[in-house]
Amino acid sequence: MNTPFLAAATASTRMHVVWDWNGTVKDDLDDHVDALNATLPALGGEPVDRETYRAKHTVPIPNFYARLLGRTITEQEWVSSDNAFLDHLRAQPVRVREGAVELMAALREAGHTQSLLSLCPHDTLLREVEQAGIGHFFTRVEGRTGPSGGTKAAPLAAHLAALGLTDQAHRVLLVGDAVDDAEAAHVCGAYAVLHTGGLHHPAKLAASGHPLTATLADAVALGLRLIQDHGTQLACA
Q1: Tell me: the pLDDT tens digits for 152-170?
Q2: Per-residue pLDDT reduced to its tens digit, 67-99
Q3: Rg of the chain taking only CA atoms, in angstroms
Q4: Does 3.40.50.720 match the CATH number of domain 16-28+95-236?
């Protein structure tokens, strides 16, 4: 992979990348569509295609089901559907997005640090990262341990606190595929760049106004520039 933007980091240019998992590092859009279609009939819904999935996907996930079904699902329906959805996903092989491993290796070689934060169950995340063989790139791997259906803002704040980066959030880049990723980063004072190859439709991401790229490598390059520009502005202030 050609990564000329990843020159050796210095104390003033070093950044920490927080990777999203589903739809970002893990290339699993088709798995998510299949898992959703396996759960919708029990709720009276019809199967959806990739475009419909991406156009209507939102966080919290119960709101996603409401968009698809035209009604709010009950707590019991949500728990049952979520369990069935996750069971289907767990049965699929783990596929890492093309170029992601090389990009992580380049980041590490340049002196940047990385971690992984996901809203999927923590035990599932650990198992899938182990299967993918990429755990050595991360200083912390963290999935959801509480109830499902939430947003990433609070988990990201706790993640940065555990890493000792709360006061250095301006050097943190979150790379994800959802508006919720960008909003969580904003709340925590970090940067976020979204990519268009994940679970959310590119048009919806573009309409949000958040930084957006076509690939993970471009997301890292843009994020690095944003963080370095911020450092330059502080130095000149």
Answers
A1: 999 999 999 999 999 999 9
A2: 999 999 999 999 999 999 999 998 999 999 999
A3: 18
A4: no
Query: Hey, what's the torsion of the CAs at 176, 179, 184, 186, to 10 degrees?
Result: 100
Dist CA 209 CA 200 (whole Å): 14
Amino acid identity of residue 26, one-letter, is K
Report d(CA 102, CA 115) in Å as an integer: 15
Q: Are 175 and 192 in contact (CB under 8 A)?
A: yes
| Chain Cα centroid distance, residue 73 | 25
Residue ranges of domains in the chain: 16-28+95-236, 29-90
